[in-house]
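Dissemination and training. As part of the outreach component of the grant, students in the summer workshop were shown how a complex can be specified as a set of sequence lines and then modelled as a single object. The example used during the hands-on session is reproduced here so that future cohorts can follow it. Participants entered these lines:
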Amino acid sequence: MIVAGIDVGSSTSKSVILEDNHILSYSIIPTGAESAGSAQRAMDEALKGTNHLSLKDLRWIIATGYGRVIVPFADETVTEISCHAKGANWLFPSVRTVLDMGGQDCKAIRCDEQGKLLNFVMNDKCAAGTGRFLEAMAEVMDLPLEDIGELSLQAKEEIRINSTCTVFGKSEVASLIRQGRDKRDILAGLHVAILNRVYTLLRRVGIEPCFAITGGIAKNIGMVKRLEEKVGLNALLAEEPQIVGALGAALFARNKPSKS
Amino acid sequence: MVTSTSARKSLQTTLEVPTLRKAYYAQTLEDSKKGRKVAWCSNNIPAEILDVMDVTSVFLENYATVIAAKRLASGYCVAGEKKGFSQDVCGYARMLMGYLLARDEVPEAPYGGLAKPDFLLVNSYSCDSRLGWFTAMNRALNLPLHVHDAPHQPDGACDLAANAEYTERELRSLVAFLEEQTGNKFDSERLRKRLELSRQTSEIMFDINELRKAVPCPMGSADMFTAVWPAMYMVGTKECEDFYQKLRAEVEERIAKGIGVVPEEKFRLMWSGIPFWYNMSLLNYVEDFGGVVAIEGFYRSRERRLPPQHDDPIKDMALRSIRQRTFPSSIIISIDDLMDAVKEYKIDGVILSFNPSCRLSYVPQMELQRSLEEGGIPTLGLECDMADERTYSDAQVKTRIDAFVERLLAKA
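and obtained this result:
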């Protein structure tokens, strides 16, 4: 029984192909300006990874993420909130709290022992305190996104950053750079600013062990370490945290009856 | 041309409201032409008193919702902002200040615009924004402004007799102001009759809300947010009473035939707070999942209106408002009302709107949400302005509602 999940997010599109309890293949590609096209490309790439499957071999496809409604080949949609809970719980059955830090949204999610959604809290409607914010700040500082977490841990001091608004944050960081402040110290401040926002979401939803971080920011060691310290728990991290939503969608698809 | 996002109605009677509203605004323009005095009012100014003083009342907040429902609000807000009103100012006030100060810059005004005012009436107790807004209009128009006050009524900690006396003085002061402005003499008997008619209407409204407890839900908030209009702006008139009699009969008929808003009702929601007037179709959104927004937290009478408390209609109004807490009271009472409604209407979850430019509703909503969650009732908070569409993101709002529905269905 082969099924697929596709997660069309604001930054990246992810696809997972699942056969029973085994991930056959997955893909992660930038979403770009054309979400429907990126969904198709993500699926094509994941299918290519199986070496033998085509779209017609997939018994059921569930789309999730912001672009879920414009995936032409999907059989059904489920929100990324339920999918992250499902995916994280499948990877780590003890998980009850999930923090998904994506490009546009940040979600604190609570689930039961089966990965069913119990409650969730999301950030405000703007991209403040999300992956987009860190992307924009890395760009201002002319640093590769994948390095900023590690660099933030090398800071000698944490410079206080007042704004997690991407527009105001950019000006604040540009001003600090002009003052000759160490980029590592600025990065530490940026991470702490986001951490404080994210922690509020977690407090609102209620933090219960075990705790997993999913989404692109789970690859940022600076953020993960600070969160673990603040929450007082070790975070469970998937080998590839960006595909947890697509994996959850595939798991929902697995429970669907045959199309015929 | 903007796309309409009005709510899909289930009841035939509700469909009559736009005609009534249009006629009401046409009448205000006609009255003004004929030389009848026009008052621009905030909500909670007692319309019955104005009517018996032969004053035409124009409720600005209602007109603001009309503009918002026609999806024209952003243009009015921008005009208001250009005149110095911050985005943090009440959306209704910002829009109407835009209308007032930059008329040539705003989109065409619905219903031919507002009747020209002769004076302004504002209540001081609903929120601070109204006072600031009417003071700004008072300066811009150089027209008389009367402020109508009411006592604060914290639970179990106030002198009811003193509050009733204070309220009576305030009502008499309003009457004196109207007499001075119009030269008309106040007729106590006329007001008594008018109040009796509005009491009868209020009785029918209460019955309708009681009937709405039925399963399946015969009339949801998608209808009631529209159907409540005559009770707010035509109160004490025969047309208003006729409308609600017809509405009650239709609700009764639907219950008798087992007709619900959705064919197979799976879950029932409450909408707490001011809706997003520019997208009322959100109230229908959960219907595709078998859900219904069965009841609303605002604009609903929570108890049957008391019978007349005194032969003198002014004393009667004062005593009723004190005994029925129609004036500001404590959040504890709001929480109790909400929790009772959740039980009585068999509510599975509550959507709370957080309107950033409405401080009056925003802060209590936080407390209501906390109480609901602590009581085991799932909630969803949506933060968008009630009037300014620029604060609304369809994809984000619907993702949150979708996830909330998944949460409710997972629980089932």
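The longest strand of chain A covers residues 22-30. Students were then asked to discuss how this feature might be tested experimentally.
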